[in-house]
Amino acid sequence: MPKNDGDITKERILKAAEKLFSEEGFDGTSMDKIAKDVGINKGSIYYHFKDKNDIMASLFKKILSDMYEHVDYISRPMKERLEDKIKREIQYLSDKKRILSILFMETLKSGNNTDYFIQCLEVMIKKELDSTLKNGNVGELIEEDLEKYIVYEFFTGMMPIISFIMLKDKWCEYFKYDEKKLFEHFMEAFVNSHLKAHKFNK
Amino acid sequence: MPKNDGDITKERILKAAEKLFSEEGFDGTSMDKIAKDVGINKGSIYYHFKDKNDIMASLFKKILSDMYEHVDYISRPMKERLEDKIKREIQYLSDKKRILSILFMETLKSGNNTDYFIQCLEVMIKKELDSTLKNGNVGELIEEDLEKYIVYEFFTGMMPIISFIMLKDKWCEYFKYDEKKLFEHFMEAFVNSHLKAHKFNK
Amino acid sequence: MPKNDGDITKERILKAAEKLFSEEGFDGTSMDKIAKDVGINKGSIYYHFKDKNDIMASLFKKILSDMYEHVDYISRPMKERLEDKIKREIQYLSDKKRILSILFMETLKSGNNTDYFIQCLEVMIKKELDSTLKNGNVGELIEEDLEKYIVYEFFTGMMPIISFIMLKDKWCEYFKYDEKKLFEHFMEAFVNSHLKAHKFNK
Amino acid sequence: MPKNDGDITKERILKAAEKLFSEEGFDGTSMDKIAKDVGINKGSIYYHFKDKNDIMASLFKKILSDMYEHVDYISRPMKERLEDKIKREIQYLSDKKRILSILFMETLKSGNNTDYFIQCLEVMIKKELDSTLKNGNVGELIEEDLEKYIVYEFFTGMMPIISFIMLKDKWCEYFKYDEKKLFEHFMEAFVNSHLKAHKFNK
DNA sequence: CATGAATGAGCATTCATTCAT
DNA sequence: GATGAATGAATGCTCATTCAT
């Protein structure tokens, strides 16, 4: 939480950077644009951040610690339908849409060594698994099962949800969907997942 | 098919651009780098392409027509296990890894109007559906069902596969997996999809 | 002599500036670097000095008054071998190596009007001459002789010594000399000076 | 020798850089100033030179090869008074005044690893020695004598001359000398060198 | 005395693009 | 078809300096 002028400015720079990076990509966003968006001098950014990458790293740190807190909160023991839990999850991640898009874009570049996006989802999956285990919903997991679980959650659980969140707007515009319809279709698809449905058809 | 020197150069520019865009992103790749990679003069690129966006558009056109051809080929009627079909699909898409990453990165930017990635997957899904219908595996589809089908295939079918392909290398490095193990885990997860497995656990 | 905190800080700034200017040149040294080196806030420098040039001017003033004091001290009447006197001179100037380098660099720029270095050596030469005259070693000097004397002392006396001091380290590294050998060679060369030796060879 | 437009531009950049570096120092000269002085676009400089240091390095290379050629020319066997030879030498070096000042300034910075100036004078001294030896003026030189000779020539021969050349203008302005008088005084001092004169006084 | 924060001009360098040859 | 040379705008970043606290 910002306490003085400097911290407030820093926060505003991060907010502007998050917006602009998600709109134009990291490389497509100039320090000039960020400064203009915040309404400060370009040089001032360098008072608060070492360089452009430092802004990126700060955004990453922020979302990571946010996710730590979030998972603690969301996974208290409660009797809740799985579907409702997923809806809440989607809600939470929707608020992180921008930063998730940024992290994904960066992680997709094969030429750098950033695995921001993978780290981020790893945190979510592991934290959630931890709390599930604590609640006694399942027994202990052996190492191989853990690996399988992470792969499974990542690619067939998280990826559908996060790509839905990231592409929702463009999808609606491209296919002339309204958002509500897409959401319902997606939920049906997700619950009633892929190959399972295939089997029913045959 | 390139016929003369000019076409060959054009092809080489596209190949270099595809490599570099996927490594550093579109904005992170300069015309200079492309020219150097091809081994030609920077100005020459402008003989073959109007501007940088034109290179991008050409890459998009190429993958789109490639997908048209591919789907015609892959979906001939044959008795094949679903799992094997998926493996072939993954194989095909793996060869397109670079361009898919590029298109995805661009589509993630909310500030431009490119929906390259969505268009691309739409083609794949629709072409495949067409051929499935022709083969008489299912009856006619009403409009709403078609929409649901596309959403379903896109987010819970294609997205897991494509994100697996795009993130495979970074995943293996980050988690110290070998490729084979990841592939097996992924296949198991994908076949045995998400919520279905959840049900089995309880 | 620094008396309170403020003066101490001022002294520390000068010390840091002297070090950094001699390492990277005046233009190559930023106020930031100086502040960081001193361990104070950049703004604080401006409490003690009007601007960057003021730091330079202060360094110059300091060395000038130091030289006044030094010459008074060194040139008391004593029976000392010329060679020993020169050695003492070299010793004294070695301690001023940094500031002499800085002043020389600045004076070499033809585009500004600084003649720091010339002034500095003028003081040394004149003070020494004064004391020599007082000691009655020579008679009165007419104006033209004074001019000749200064030219002579400056270019064939001071310049060899000072360039030896300024270039010593780089020379040793470049030619793989050890410092002692260079010093001996230099002393021999200096005592046994240039054209004289030429004559002996023939 | 420049053959086409590009080479001419390159040559003009070098000329402007030499002038500006000598006026304001390397760090004090911006690429902007150079471009403006040449009358070209700033970006164009980067077509011809990798970066600012590359310009510096090119200037250094140029003077070095110029010196190689010069010494070959100047040291043909001839019966010439030493004094006249020195005058010719001074004449030659006067034309190199700018670049010598630049190289000296850079070499004076202890923080970088450039020994441009030392290398430069080493070439002059060694080439001249070579030709002197060939002319049979002296016998063979053993290693230690060579070292002594270089030290001797460098500090008591070259340094007075080059500092005279570099400081001449400022000296005349500061002391209100006219150039001719300074030259005569310097020649007298140089011929009649330092300690020798001291001895005569006593 | 000293700091944190800011400013605007300037820095070296790179960019996409153009065009005569 | 391709090259060498150039351009002007923009890039990320640093500069000396200021000032309220």
Can you offer a commentary on this structure?
4 copies of one chain form a homotetramer. With 202 residues, chain A is mainly alpha-helical. In chain A, 78% of the residues lie in helices and 0% in strands. Chain A contains 10 helices and no strands. Chain A has helices at residues 5-24, 31-38, 42-48, 52-74, 82-95, 97-108, 116-134, 143-175, 179-191, 194-201. In chain A, helix 1 packs across helix 6 (97-108), helix 2 packs across helix 3 and helix 8 packs antiparallel against helix 9. Chains in contact: A-B, C-D. At the A-B interface, helix 1, helix 6, helix 7, helix 8 and helix 9 of A face helix 1, helix 6, helix 7, helix 8 and helix 9 of B. The structure holds a DNA duplex (21 and 21 nucleotides).
Task: Please tell me how large the radius of gyration of chain A is.
Answer: 19 Å
Low-confidence parts of chain A, pLDDT < 50 over ≥5 residues? 197-202
**Main pleated-sheet profile of chain A:** none
Number of strands of chain A: 0
Name the assembly state: homotetramer
* Cα end-to-end separation of chain A: 56 Å
Approximate shape of chain A: globular
The level of helicity of chain A is: over 70%
Structural class, from secondary structure content of chain A? mainly alpha
What proportion strand of chain A? under 5%
**Rounded mean pLDDT score of chain A:** 88
Q: How many alpha or pi helices of chain A?
A: 10
